[in-house]
Batch of 2 targets.
Target 1
Amino acid sequence: MEISLIQSKIIEIRQQKVLLDRDLATMYGVETKRLKEAVRRNIERFEDEDFMFQLTENEIYKLSRTQIATLNGGRGNNIKYAPYAFTELGVAMLSSVLNSKIAIEINKNIMRAFVMIRQFALNYAELNRKLDDFMAETNMQFSEVYQVLTELVEKKKIEEKPYRPVGFTIPTNN
C-alpha cells in the first residue's frame, strides 16, 4: 500500500494522529469486526489511551456528517458502532497481534507514514521559527530606517528655518 494513501487516512483526534479501525482493517485486508476481535483478545496491550481509544458520540458525529450536517450518502458510509482510533504506538502494537506477512508489510508503511507526517510537522515548525526570526530582524531594520528618516526630516526643518541675524538691521523699503 502506498505511503501517500496511508497518510491520507491519518486523522487528528484529541490532538493525536490516529488511524481508525475500519481503515486499518481495509489496509490489512480483514473485516473490521475481525480486527476488533483480535484487539479485544489482547486488550491488555491497548489499554492506555496513547495506544488506542474508542471515539465518543460527538467525535463519531463529526466524522459521520458532511459540512452541511447531513448524513453521508449511501449505505455503509455512516458510522454505526464506535470505532477505535489507533495511535502510532497502537499501530505498532497491532503488528504483534496481527501476525501475518501482509500485516508486517502494511505496518512498516504505516510507521513510515507516521514518521513522514511527524517530520513534516517538525520542518513546518522550524520554517515558522525561521520566518519569525526573519520578520523580527526585518522589523528592526525598518525601525532603524524610520528613525534615520525622522532625524533627517527634523534636520531639514531646522535648516529651512528663516535666518534672523543678530544685532541691528536696517529695514528695507520695498
Target 2
Amino acid sequence: MTISDMPDIYFIRHGQTNWNRDARYQGQKDIPLNATGRAQADANGVLLRQLLERDGLTPADFDWLASPMNRTRETMKRVRAAFPPPMPDVRYDDRLIEVSFGRFEGLLASQMHGEGPAGMQPMGHRDESFWHYRPEQGESYDDLAARLTPVLEGLKGLSIIVAHGGVARVFRHLIEGLPREEAVNWGIPQTAIMRFSGGAMTMIPSANSDLD
C-alpha cells in the first residue's frame, strides 16, 4: 500500500534524548530532550525557515502537527522559535506517538542481541517479520501503520509534522513504498528534515548534521 496522492510533508524527528544516546528502547516512555537534542531541534528550525523562504512559503501555508509527547512538544517549540510571530496553532495528535515496545522499553539494544527474545532483533538484523512482531504489552509496526494511515489520509494541505523514528519508518513505507525490511532497519537522523513529495522522500541535512 502506498499513499502518494497527498500534500507535501516536512517531517522532523524529535531531538536526541539520553535514551537515544545510550541506544535504549524508548517507545512511549516520555523521556525529555538532552542538550544535544535541544541544539538539534534549534538547527532544524533554522533549516525549515530557510527551506520555506527558498520556496516562497510562509508558516501560515502549513498545517502544523506533532506527537503530544514531551520530547516532540519541545522539539516543535524550538523549531517554531526560528520564525517570527504570529504562528499558526499546532495540532497535537495522539495517533502520532511512537510505537510501543511494551515491556522491553528501557532496555539497551545490546541486551537484545543474542540474548533478546525471539523476534526482537536489534537494528540492522531485522527481517520483514519484525514489521509484524508485537512485544508483550506493546505494538507492532503494522499496528502503528494502522493508526497512522488515517492521519495521512486526513491531511488537507501542506503539513509540517514533528514525531518519532518509528513514525518516520512507517511514513516511508506508506508514502513511497519502502519495503518493510528496509523500513524497520532504517536509522532515522535527528539532524535533518525529511520532505515527502510526490510519493518520494528527500533528506535535507541541517547545519550540524552528522549525516555523511
